[in-house]
Write a structure and sequence with these properties.
The complex is a heterodimer.
Chain A: H1 2-20, H2 27-39, H3 43-50, H4 57-69, H5 73-81, H6 90-104, H7 119-132, H8 143-147, H9 152-166, H10 173-182, H11 186-191, H12 194-216, H13 220-266
Helix pairs in contact in A: 2-3, 3-4, 4-5, 4-6, 5-6, 6-7, 10-13, 12-13
Chain B: H1 3-39, H2 43-56, H3 63-76, H4 80-92, H5 97-113, H6 117-128, H7 137-150, H8 154-164, H9 169-180, H10 184-190, H11 196-200, H12 204-226, H13 230-274
Helix pairs in contact in B: 1-2, 2-3, 3-4, 3-5, 4-5, 5-6, 5-7, 6-7, 7-8, 8-9, 10-13, 12-13
The chains are: A mainly alpha, B mainly alpha.
């Protein structure tokens, strides 16, 4: 019995320190905690925790994805450089790097498809590459070819973006200027600024009349003041009409780009969903 | 029970107790470590360590305190939505009515800081109508006063503080500021006489300039009408005199609003730096 007690005692002593004190910072627990943080969308802390343990292809990709979700695209693409082509996440990382690049600098994707893409990834790549052409100044692709990678749900929207890009509803700054030179305010009305157009027409007309009326009544000084003011209004209205047309066109471009970005965000840039939290 | 069995039982008991104590110590140590980080102002790290504790602590022993300190850490980083989220979790994990109350008050303070006054007042009313907290009316009035301070309603704030005790220090400050503030409507009304609104807000030079412009354009307008130059009179009157007259009214209102903003910001700054009582 004595021997039994001694064995029991020794075993207990040797085992208890390992089993009783919880090690929060063992690599296994750090990884569990990092995964938990990642699933809670606390990406910054998750990345910090992944940095404390030895890396593998999954953690590398999760760090890359985390940076991207934190809008730190440059950092995300830096991680991509360290991901091996042999990694099982290389194709996903490749797609994600294209998305990051597009978010950093909207421009058409010049990269090529890679062999390791599966059919879903290839489909995503084709959609992303095609839609990114809309960020270029000009589109040199037929509509049928442009919309071909997209499925039924997106085809109408993509088709609309194509039309808006190829036939933008621009206003001609030169025409606006000429119109305002002929009839003051008409250039503004052409751009759609009816209130400003009518005001410019009335103000220029009023000043012209005042100048004429004062010349007729021999109030020369006052007449020249109104002539100067009228000329200023007239010239300003021509300049304003040209500027309005340019602003109108810039607004069209801005709204197009913002609409496109919103659409891409809604579609997650056609990237497959990564669910590490199931 | 034989003596050997007794010894066996005692040893088993000691080992069992030490197992539980050591395990508990690990978590308590982690909690204390996170608290130290919070006390040192390392809020990001404090949140990380508390989240780590909460993730591994299946007993839920630290849930209330840890969630509350996470909320306070987020508050320090001005991440108010996150702070509210964790105060709500603290409330859900509270073990007593007092803890529920504390978690709710912390959430109320966040709402005060982000000036969601209606929400703040609704939360305060909820507590006020809760019989469990009938003895907390002074504290609830106190935070109601602060909610009004942050929503720029100094007279209402004064009423709330006075409900705690007549002549409350904060009530006196609120009254003093309320008296000191300009009335933008009065400034506008006084400006019906050009320059008067500016004089009311202490902007004497601006007031004199306003008088000058209005006298000049008024004279030219009236002069044109008197000389039967009706069209000139109408043009000068509408395009110039009226423009300057209405501008003078808007200007006076703008001065009143700007000066009030400056005064209230100074008051908030004063409270932040010099008031020793509890602040949101």
């Amino acid at each position: 019995m004595k021997n039994y007690l001694i064995i029991f005692f020794l075993v207990s002593i040797s085992v208890s320190p390992q089993t009783t004190s919880f090690d929060f910072y063992s690599p296994e627990n750090i990884k569990k905690f990092a995964d938990h943080l990642f699933c809670e969308a606390d990406y910054l802390r998750a990345i910090e925790q992944y940095g404390l343990i030895s890396k593998d292809c999954t953690t590398d990709f999760k760090v890359m994805l985390g940076y991207s979700l934190l809008n730190l695209y440059q950092e995300s693409n830096e991680i991509f450089k360290s991901i091996s082509e042999k990694s099982k996440f290389y194709s996903d990382a490749y797609l994600l790097s294209l998305k990051n690049s597009l978010l950093m600098k909207p421009a058409s994707v010049s990269a090529q498809a890679i062999k390791s893409f599966d059919s879903i990834q290839l489909n995503s790549f084709n959609k992303l590459k095609t839609i990114s052409m809309l960020f270029d100044d000009e589109l040199s692709i037929s509509k049928d070819k442009f919309i071909s990678p997209f499925d039924e749900n997106d085809i109408n929207t993509v088709s609309l973006f194509y039309d808006m890009k190829t036939k933008p509803l621009y206003k001609s700054p030169a025409l606006a200027g000429v119109m305002s030179a002929v009839i003051p305010g008409s250039g503004k009305m052409y751009v759609g600024e009816w209130g400003d157009g009518i005001t410019a027409f009335l103000a220029t007309g009023l000043l012209a009349f005042l100048a004429y009326d004062n010349f007729r009544a021999d109030h020369t000084t006052r007449a020249w003041i109104f002539t100067g003011l009228g000329t200023f209004f007239y010239a300003g209205n021509i300049y304003g009409s040209i500027a309005s047309a340019q602003i109108f066109n810039a607004k069209i471009n801005f709204e197009f780009n913002e609409g496109l970005k919103l659409f891409l965000e809604q579609k997650n840039y056609f990237l497959p969903e990564y669910d590490f939290c199931k | 029970m034989t003596s050997v069995s007794k010894i066996f039982f005692i040893l088993f008991f000691i080992l069992n107790v030490s197992y539980r104590t050591l395990a508990q110590n690990s978590f308590e140590h982690q909690f204390n470590f996170a608290n130290e980080l919070y006390a040192k102002g390392k809020y990001f790290d404090a949140v990380t360590e508390l989240k780590r504790l909460l993730f591994f602590d299946v007993t839920g022993k630290f849930s209330y305190e840890a969630n509350k300190i996470i909320g306070l850490s987020y508050k320090q980083g001005a991440k108010f939505s996150d702070a509210i989220h964790y105060f709500s979790l603290a409330e859900l994990n509270a073990d007593s009515e007092e803890e529920v109350y504390e978690a709710r008050i912390e959430a109320i303070k966040i709402n005060i800081l982000r000036r969601t006054t209606e929400r703040t007042l609704a939360l305060l009313d909820e507590l006020r109508n809760d019989e469990r907290y009938s003895d907390k009316s002074d504290e609830l009035n106190y935070w109601t006063g602060w909610a009004y301070i942050f929503s720029d309603k100094w007279e209402k704030a004064s009423i709330s503080f006075s409900a705690i005790v007549p002549g409350h220090g904060l009530a006196l400050l609120c009254d003093s500021l309320a008296d000191d503030l300009y009335n933008p409507t009065l400034a506008k009304t006084l400006s019906l006489i050009p320059g008067a609104g500016q004089f009311y807000t202490g902007e004497y030079i601006s007031g004199l300039i306003s008088i000058g412009w209005n006298v000049l354009w008024g004279y030219l307008t009236i002069n044109a009408f008197m000389e039967d130059r009706i069209f000139d009179g109408l043009v000068i009157g509408t395009l110039l005199w009226w423009r300057f007259y209405s501008g003078n009214i808007q200007n006076a209102e703008k001065f009143a609003v700007e000066k009030n903003l400056e005064k209230t910001n100074n008051a908030l700054q004063y409270l932040k730096n010099n008031y020793d009582g509890e602040k949101p």
